[in-house]
Amino acid sequence: MKHIVKGLILFCIGGFTYVGIEILARGYSHWSMFLVGGICFLLIGLLNEITPTMPLLNQMLISCVMVTIIEFVSGCILNIWLQMDIWDYTDEIGNILGQICPKHSLYWFLLSFVAILLDDFIRHEVFKEPKQTYTLF
Fold first, then answer.
1. Which residues contact 3 (CB under 8 A, 6 or more apart)?
2. Rounded distance between C-alpha atoms, residue 49 and residue 52, angstroms
3. Which residues contact 93 (CB under 8 A, 6 or more apart)?
4. Rounded distance, CA 27 to CA 75, Å?
5. Does residue 16 surpass a pLDDT of 90?
């Protein structure tokens, strides 16, 4: 039961953070981004828990790829299949079906640093898990 509560708390933190970042970046968000953000935050934290000795840059790169894949799948479902038009990157260089692009993947790479540190901070301070140590390479 403790794991479910912890997962739900982390999911909500990720969801609210994702929506908050979107509101700051473009002035609005959509309820579905709460779900996407929650899933992304859980996976980033899980990656760190499974491989605690992985260098930080590797965690950031894998996190970036995971978030980009989730963005692509959710974009194909929400924007293309359900025609909700939540975002559209067709004007961005290197976009794929208007759902992902290199520029936003770079943003996810940079933001994954914050997500990794935030997840570790919450796990240590709130859930009393051991403090993480990091290596860059």
1. none
2. 5
3. 101, 102, 103
4. 19
5. yes
